[in-house]
């Protein structure tokens, strides 16, 4: 996905545009963030011009991070079933609002006959735009996501090296996520996040991809000097470009 909605002009109502199936609920706040970004980025003149989104927000899908760490197939089975159901419901292309779950993207793509737009690729393409000659991108994500290698392999394909938190800071980041999910405010977690980010910058990160929605909300409070890439923002812009502008 290389297109963006930045220069998109409204031309006709959304009835002729593609319906987008959304594999969501991983967690629900990430799905809501994606929905909000799509609404904000679509250059409509009336409400009727918005995209049709078929959203399956299912928090009951087995925990992705735990499934990756345990090599458990239940999450993959649930994601494949969700993708197939969205296609039957009328989706003409798919997105999945969870970074770590993109480890299962090949199985999802093999199960449907419609395009699957990757938020990993959308974020990495943004990094490549910022560093056209290559460079080093920080990846701030859960331990399962980091172990899966979804960001690292995509960055490598674009000639970009990845910078990850060291073992101690990776544990600290998981603790920050647990606190945020338990109700801590972004301000409560700004100090440890600052420490983690500063260490990644010291290790050579020229931008940081934030592979977790809860962390993104906290990162917005930090005012980091280097570019921060939000995969939800990037996939929302990309899906508006391909499903709304190009139809």
Automatic annotation (TrEMBL):
Pfam families: Asp_Glu_race (PF01177). The keyword Flavoprotein does not apply. Keywords: Isomerase. Signal peptide: none annotated. GO terms for molecular function: amino-acid racemase activity. Gene3D superfamilies: 3.40.50.1860. It comes from the Bacteria. Belongs to the aspartate/glutamate racemases family. This is Aspartate racemase. The lineage of its organism: Bacteria, Pseudomonadati, Pseudomonadota, Gammaproteobacteria, Woeseiales.
